[in-house]
Write a structure and sequence with these properties.
The protein is mainly β. The chain is built from no helices and five strands.
Length: 69
Amino acid sequence: MTGRRYLLRGGQVELVCTFVLPSARNPLPAAPAWLTWVTPPSGAPRNAAVRYPDGRVVVRPFRGLRRLA
């Protein structure tokens, strides 16, 4: 999913990386117990890192990005 181009407020941005929930095929890396969520927070936003045309990389909610046709 990374590298795709999306529209954000009329300008093109490139998706650098996106938040992915852990699964059997994509487990969480080893981490101390105090750092691991017992359950993910409810209503947590799907965040994504996007690169603007000027080179800035910003983490923002995935909401609002429109896929290019």
